[in-house]
């Protein structure tokens, strides 16, 4: 691999080097400066984006080159690491430092981690992909990151051998130091960085990884690297970024997506408001650019705009003036048709007709907002050479770079994407047509000839935030004469987020529409799971745990319904349907034990309140989860006291982060099942801020008890998997307590009595 | 007008009705205070005005004339503020971190007013929204700061306890030589097993509300 560094071999700017094998790029002194690397630092990458060599050859004053340096060992014995994955609270920066640091033998606390810029070499996931999503970051790059650390450690050993005049085999390391036991001498990594600069990266074939039994940091509750900055206001998010000469912008979006500006009644007045620089018509919005964002926002709100319907050739989803979520839910419930098969086993129709008892029920979910606390923003700045820099929240820099380039009429290498910390994401920061502020920011920066930072106010955000899809699922379950489920049919009337974002259906069904109703582990011999597609007028999005966020609610609640009809205990029934499945049986036992033993209730708690518990399971993103929730009814509303969750991601990197993520996912799960719902009336969202779109407040939070089970199975995800079992566990508890089946979210739509 | 922020006087040229939040962020370049909703709903913009917790997004500039504004940028200059930050780090509270400036300032205001707040005081004061769900970690940090009994890991009503996790001592030993280990984190606290029933989690307080 080292030969890749030889600039003579680097000619094709589109070539892509194997992402798995690290290379030493320190020798390219010219690159060090552009990498922002310290002088004398050892810089390790996975390859070299070859635009580099060409740029250097072509220009006396080359444009800044993006060096694919993942790892830089600095003379001061600290490590700078460029993470392919965005930090949005899920702890991935720390996890990456733990994994690389483990093999490098360097304390993760000495790592400085930043988000890597766009670049093919950073596309380290299978298939040359790079997104921060799908709970994939750690599980898909665990080996790669270990190899990176191990390779760098070998180079440091080699450099130390040279320096000390001994064989590398006589050397060992302790965190941050190379030791020579024979002579008692040692050298800090930082002292060796310079000496390692000219060494070739070891042949991947001879790189040995540590025995997991000797791990010092992986598997331990290593402290997160970003805590102090985040507790003192020093952490920088996109909304905080600024560049010299920057103007601020705010928009007034068309009330419905697809409308364009017909006229502005008071444009001159608004343009004359204090601080206003200029007013701009930009497609489905009017923007105000000002010296201060407050001025821009106030002026944008003052605009009296007449909007017009789009022409026929609009490529965005047009929101009709009469759209209402209630009517749409009705339509979904009454949509005729058998749907398209997604999962078939046996003969569900025959088994249902032969069943002793048939249970039928229709469930529905709601649209929900991401509602991340940081409103979206984009800072666009054109450089004198025509290149464009953007600071914006994003979960996929290369995808954004490609779209920005297309939009701005530039080559991708002329677009530099900066990815600051995300102030929450939950799926909000993918490319969403009409749902990202960057096209507007680019237009405005171009129009005013100065850098522009555009912030969407919370109100404008809630008007364009793409939504988690709504679905109606029609279930039919067949029970045998002992009350055991033997047949299941589920037809989900919905549109999946992936097909929704693409705005077209593909030949294959959208997995993200039905995940969580499909691929359930329960042994129900005859089943048919299908999707009946109905296009949504709203824009759609991924939302933490995607299809599972609602589909496990449907399935696990209906399973309880079948259990009740058949006179089965829901916990015992799950155990029976998972007979022979060691992993899930263990998980069920684990969550039951965590909660002090399964008891459904209703029962009277120590404080005199009537309570009950519900249970549910989910298998999202390669991880298995089981949750038990305990509820009571307070003034007609559901109070969730405790959530016990057992989670088996196979193996883990940081138990403290796993526990924090379970807490986080439980919060969002509770918020969804208890409170959240995006309501549209007359083509407009009823809520434009948190006043009418409540998210879970502190006084509705439950205690959360976590049991991590490391079964040793293939590593699964952590950010999303703890969510999907929570809503059905709560709803099943409410049904147990009240005797009333809950078939829709949020529960705040209903008033309950404890039975 | 003249604005007192973190003990320093600033001359700002802004309209009387410009929210303090935007004066801080755009006029003074102090971006630690966050914009979340603009409606005093979320609390991300919380600052102290003469020691009182205040949502700066709906606080007009002229209303703070002659008053002392304290922002997150100065939190560690205050002895109590330093303790709050230390507790936030010790309990590994933040996730995305966006709301945490406001959470820390809310905790600071509470502890300045009452050195040993009760669980009820904590619940009444810590009302800012957090989309990441750090509520239990915040509760644990405040419980610690207030010197209250460790109820962050209060036993569930069912009387269960999770004795599976390592003790603080074993974790510390396992990673000896590494400075990067969570000590007294929510993770560890949650594994200390059964605690009393008094002042359970945040949820229970709601019932009496």
Oligomer: heterodimer
Radius of gyration of chain B: 19 Å
Which value, in Å, is the CA radius of gyration of chain A? 28 Å
Secondary-structure class of chain B: alpha+beta
- The termini of chain B sit apart by 42 Å
Biggest β-sheet description of chain B: 5 strands, mixed
Instruction: Outline the low-pLDDT stretches of chain A.
Output: 1-20, 27-36, 47-68
The tally of strands of chain A reads 29
Strand adjacency order, main sheet of chain B: 2-1-5-3-4
In round numbers, the mean pLDDT of chain A is 91
The CATH class of the largest domain in chain A is: Alpha Beta
**Sheet of most strands of chain A:** 7 strands, mixed
**Which CATH C-level class of the domain at 2-74 in chain B is it?**
Alpha Beta
Assign the CATH superfamily of the largest domain in chain A. Answer: Aldehyde oxidase/xanthine dehydrogenase, molybdopterin binding domain
* CATH-defined topology of the largest domain in chain A: Aldehyde Oxidoreductase, domain 4
- From the N-terminal CA to the C-terminal CA of chain A, the straight-line distance is 70 Å
Strand fraction of chain A equals 15-25%
Within the CATH hierarchy, at the fold level, what is the topology of the domain at 2-74 in chain B?
A: Ubiquitin-like (UB roll)
Shape of chain B: globular
Overall shape of chain A: globular
Pfam families (chain B): Fer2, Fer2_2
Protein name (chain B): (2Fe-2S)-binding protein
Organism (chain B): Novosphingobium clariflavum
Keywords (chain B): 2Fe-2S, Iron, Iron-sulfur, Metal-binding, Oxidoreductase
């Amino acid at each position: 691999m080292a030969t890749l560094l030889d600039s003579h071999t680097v000619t094709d700017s589109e070539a892509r080097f194997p992402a798995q094998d690290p290379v030493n790029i320190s020798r390219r002194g010219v690159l060090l400066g552009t990498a922002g690397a310290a002088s004398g630092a050892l810089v390790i990458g996975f390859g070299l984006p070859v635009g580099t060599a060409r740029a250097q050859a072509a220009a006396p004053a080359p444009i800044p080159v993006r060096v694919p340096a993942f790892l830089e060992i600095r003379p001061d014995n600290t490590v700078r690491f460029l993470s392919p994955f965005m930090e949005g609270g899920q702890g991935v920066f720390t996890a990456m430092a733990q994994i690389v640091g483990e093999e490098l033998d360097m304390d993760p606390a000495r790592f400085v981690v930043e988000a890597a810029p766009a670049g093919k070499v950073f596309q380290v996931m299978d298939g040359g992909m790079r997104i921060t999503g799908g709970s994939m970051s750690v599980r898909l790059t665990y080996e790669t990151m270990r190899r990176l650390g191990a390779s760098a450690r070998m180079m440091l050993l080699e450099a130390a051998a040279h320096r000390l005049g001994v064989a590398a085999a006589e050397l060992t390391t302790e965190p941050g130091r190379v030791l020579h036991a024979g002579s008692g001498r040692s050298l800090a990594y930082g002292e060796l960085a310079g000496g390692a600069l000219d060494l070739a990266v070891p042949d991947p074939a001879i790189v040995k990884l540590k025995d997991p039994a000797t791990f010092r940091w992986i598997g331990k509750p290593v402290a997160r690297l970003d805590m102090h900055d985040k507790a003192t206001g020093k952490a920088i998010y996109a909304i905080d970024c600024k560049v010299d000469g920057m103007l601020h912008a705010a928009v007034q979006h068309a009330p419905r997506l697809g409308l364009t500006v017909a006229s502005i009644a008071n444009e001159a007045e608004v343009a004359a408001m204090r601080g206003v620089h200029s007013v701009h018509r930009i497609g489905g919005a009017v923007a105000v650019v000002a010296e201060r964002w407050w001025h821009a926002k106030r002026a944008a709100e003052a605009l009296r705009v007449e909007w017009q319907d789009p022409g026929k050739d609009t490529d965005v989803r047009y929101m009709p003036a009469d759209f209402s979520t209630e009517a749409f839910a009705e339509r979904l419930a009454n949509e005729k048709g058998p749907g398209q098969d997604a999962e078939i086993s046996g003969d569900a129709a025959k088994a249902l007709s032969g069943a002793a008892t048939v249970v039928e029920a229709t469930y529905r979910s709601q649209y929900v907002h991401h509602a991340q606390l940081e409103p979206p923003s984009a800072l666009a700045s054109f450089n004198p050479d025509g290149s464009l820099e953007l600071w914006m929240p994003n979960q996929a820099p290369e995808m954004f770079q490609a779209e920005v380039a297309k939009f701005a009429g530039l080559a991708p290498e002329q677009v530099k994407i900066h990815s600051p910390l995300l102030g929450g994401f939950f799926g909000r920061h993918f490319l969403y047509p009409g749902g990202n502020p960057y096209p507007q920011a680019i237009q405005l920066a171009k129009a005013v000839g100065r850098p522009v930072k555009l912030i969407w106010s919370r109100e404008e955000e809630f008007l364009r935030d793409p939504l988690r899809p709504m679905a109606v699922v029609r279930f039919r379950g067949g029970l045998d004469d002992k009350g055991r489920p033997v047949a299941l049919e589920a037809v989900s009337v919905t549109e999946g987020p992936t097909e929704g974002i693409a705005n077209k259906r593909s030949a294959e069904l959208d997995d993200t529409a039905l995940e969580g109703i499909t691929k359930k582990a329960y042994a129900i011999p005859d089943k048919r799971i299908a999707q009946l597609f109905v296009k949504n007028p709203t824009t759609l999005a991924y939302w933490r745990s995607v299809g599972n966020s609602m589909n496990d609610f449907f399935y696990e609640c209906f399973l309880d319904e079948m259990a009740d009809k058949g006179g089965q205990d829901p916990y015992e029934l799950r155990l029976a349907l998972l007979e022979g499945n060691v992993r899930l049986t263990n998980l069920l036992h684990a969550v039951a034990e965590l909660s002090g033993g399964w008891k459904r209730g209703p029962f009277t708690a120590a404080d005199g309140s009537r309570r009950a518990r519900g249970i549910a399971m989910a298998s999202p993103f390669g991880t298995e989860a089981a949750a038990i929730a305990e509820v009571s009814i307070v003034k007609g509303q559901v109070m969730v006291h405790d959530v016990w969750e057992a989670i088996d991601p196979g193996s883990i990197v940081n138990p403290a982060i796993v526990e924090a993520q379970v807490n986080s996912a439980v919060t969002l799960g509770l918020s969804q099942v208890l409170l959240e719902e995006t309501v549209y009336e007359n083509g407009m969202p009823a809520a434009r801020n948190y006043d009418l779109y409540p998210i879970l407040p502190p006084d509705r939070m439950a205690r959360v008890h976590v049991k991590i089970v490391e079964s040793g199975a293939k590593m699964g995800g952590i950010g999303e998997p703890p969510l999907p079992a929570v809503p059905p566990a709560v709803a099943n508890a409410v049904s147990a307590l009240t005797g009333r089946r809950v078939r829709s979210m949020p529960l705040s739509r209903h008033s309950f009595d404890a039975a | 007008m003249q604005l007192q922020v973190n003990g320093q006087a600033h001359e700002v040229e802004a309209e009387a009705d410009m929210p303090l939040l935007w004066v801080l962020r755009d006029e003074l370049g102090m971006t630690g205070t966050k914009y979340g909703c603009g409606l005093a709903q979320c609390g991300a913009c919380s600052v102290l005005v003469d020691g009182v917790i205040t949502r700066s997004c709906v606080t007009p500039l002229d209303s703070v004339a002659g008053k002392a504004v304290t922002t997150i940028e100065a939190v560690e200059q205050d002895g109590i503020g330093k303790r709050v930050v230390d507790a936030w780090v010790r309990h590994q509270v933040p996730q995305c971190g966006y709301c945490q400036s406001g959470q820390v300032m809310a905790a600071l205001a509470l502890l300045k007013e009452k050195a040993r707040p009760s669980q009820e005081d904590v619940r009444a004061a810590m009302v800012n929204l957090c989309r990441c769900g750090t509520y239990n970690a915040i509760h644990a940090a405040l419980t610690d700061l207030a010197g209250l009994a460790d109820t962050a890991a209060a036993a569930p009503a069912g009387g269960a306890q999770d004795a599976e996790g390592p003790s603080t001592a074993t974790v510390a030993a396992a990673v000896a030589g590494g400075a990067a280990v969570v000590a007294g984190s929510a993770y560890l606290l949650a594994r200390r097993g059964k605690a009393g029933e008094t002042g359970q989690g945040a949820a229970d307080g709601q019932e009496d509300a």
